[in-house]
Amino acid sequence: MISLKGDSCLICIATVYLFIVSNASFAFSQGTPSAEIILSNPLKSSNRSPIQDLLAVPTAKSGHLLKIGQSQFEVQVDIANNFTNSFIGEESIRLDGERATVTLRWQQAINNKWQLGAELPWIYDSGGCFDSFIQDWHKLWGLPNADREFTKNNLLNYYYRSQSDSTSSVDSKSRGSGIGDLRLQLARSLWRHSDRVLSLHGQIK
């Protein structure tokens, strides 16, 4: 039986519902909004591991760019449950926690060839509430559990240690939140034929 308990889980469920509602994009222009652009956007999913997040890997983008005079604003909510426990030689790492990310995303057409964009994430790390749900899900389908059953549920524990270099150690067990790195984007339309398009996207942070 899969169960969720505690007040914090109600918050998580509400946040998941918010993700379903807000994971959509809205294009506004001086004329009629472009349904073509809205419907062609792929699901903007990315790796929300605390380490991978530092690299700010761009999410998938549509080949369709906004038309001149159009702008687009999006709000996206992601919840990622992380569990990694690894020991190699003198190094050890443990990532046990849950990360909620609210991303504000804006795009503006410069002309019919160029488009500007920016993303700003707000990040909240905590113990979360989905550990028992994930373990029950793994048990139901016979999936590997990565030794989750040997750790208490809903804890926050991020650490990295190196026996040869104590200055590189990281240890965090306190929940916290903050603004992430601002990401600036530029896109250019390269080719278009009928309903087929090709565009180049770049990003810096």
What does this structure look like?
With 205 residues, the chain is an alpha+beta fold. It contains 3 helices and 9 strands; from the N terminus they run αβαβββαβββββ. Strands 1, 2, 3, 4, 5, 6, 7, 8 and 9 form a 9-stranded antiparallel sheet that branches. The longest helix has 16 residues, at 7-22.
- The rounded Rg comes to 20 Å
Q: What count of helical segments does DSSP give? A: 3
Number of strands: 9
Order of helices and strands: HEHEEEHEEEEE
- Share of helix among residues? 10-25%
- Beta fraction: 35-45%
Spatial shape: elongated
Low-confidence stretches: 1-33
Largest sheet: 9 strands, antiparallel
Distance between the termini: 44 Å
Q: Overall mean pLDDT score?
A: 81
Task: Write a brief structural summary.
By secondary structure, the protein is of the alpha+beta class. It is built from 3 helices and 9 strands. Strands 1, 2, 3, 4, 5, 6, 7, 8 and 9 form a 9-stranded antiparallel β-sheet that branches.
Characteristics:
205 residues; alpha+beta; nine-stranded antiparallel sheet; 3 helices; 16% helix; elongated
